[in-house]
Amino acid sequence: FCTPCLQECLKPKKPLCGVCRSTLSPGSRALDLEKQIETTETTCNGCNKKMYLSKMRSHAASCSKYQNYIMEGVKAVTKEPLHNTRNFPNRFTFPCPYCSEKNFDQEGLVEHCKTLHSMDAKQVVCPICASMPWGDPNYRSANFMEHLQRRHRFSYDTFVDYDADEDDMMAQVLMRSLRDK
């Protein structure tokens, strides 16, 4: 977790678990988890030395073979990207077209707009549609809230192959429909 998110969870008014958001009791410790960490054995990926999980962090900080192992992994991942990512539009996070608040996923944008902008009649461009290959970044929806509720009930990523040609997709759909009979 990043520091601002942890700070939010640990505010004096409401200390919450960073994962499940349940209320934390001040000073309570997860003794069962501590015991499991103390008794679970693991092997260092660098030097193959066996140790308990509770000792792994301090060992990893001083094990040069482990550090080399990590650096090899970093080099392998950062060598050369497969695609030039600058040519791909961001289809994962969107700004609110009303208030320009940023970094909503699709579901978050729908919820944000339903909560804060349900009565706003201003015609706006749908940032989700504008990011799609078929999207028009200049098209302003006459009723954006209805558009969101009809068109964005699900994520396109589940159903769309952005790299496929439209004719190919239509042929695949027809083939599948014939097989399903």
UniProtKB/TrEMBL annotation:
One biological process term in Gene Ontology: protein polyubiquitination
Pfam family membership, one: zf-Di19
Coiled coil: none
Catalyzed reaction equations: S-ubiquitinyl-[E2 ubiquitin-conjugating enzyme]-L-cysteine + [acceptor protein]-L-lysine = [E2 ubiquitin-conjugating enzyme]-L-cysteine + N(6)-ubiquitinyl-[acceptor protein]-L-lysine
Transmembrane segments: none
Entry's EC annotation: 2.3.2.27
Keywords: Ligase, Transferase, Ubl conjugation pathway
Origin superkingdom: Eukaryota
Single GO molecular function: ligase activity
Top-rank EC class of the record's enzyme: transferase
Record pathway: Protein modification; protein ubiquitination
Domain C2HC RNF-type: 44-63
Claim: Transferase is one of the keywords in the record: yes
Protein name, per record: RING-type E3 ubiquitin transferase
